[in-house]
Amino acid sequence: MKIFKVLMLFVMAGFILCSCEYEWIQPEKKPIPETLSFSSDIMPIFNNGCNTNVCHGPGSTPPNLSEGNAYNSLIDGAYVDTETPEASILYTTMKSGSMVPYTDPGDEEIVLAWIQQGALDN
Question: Which residues contact 91 (CB under 8 A, 6 or more apart)?
Fold first, then answer.
């Protein structure tokens, strides 16, 4: 009788666990403006989580993505390739998924569009 109760407990637990379902919710991506501005569209992405002292701030891992330094660091460090935007180090690093905890969904597409538009310092 005791074995029957234990067996029933496992069967019930199995039914409960099998009935669990998780539905992944994909966050909506940000719409990409027709004309992108480095100061109003790209810097906010960096300010959101990239340019801390631990990651890409002054004196930490290159490129320096802090205000006033980010554009020159990206261009001088060859992180941006306007001839082949999809091959840009900045874009491929963001697209790889290694920066996911620090960026929002769609940020890499905004960066790619900015590079495709010529990566202007505007």
Answer: 85, 108, 111, 112, 115
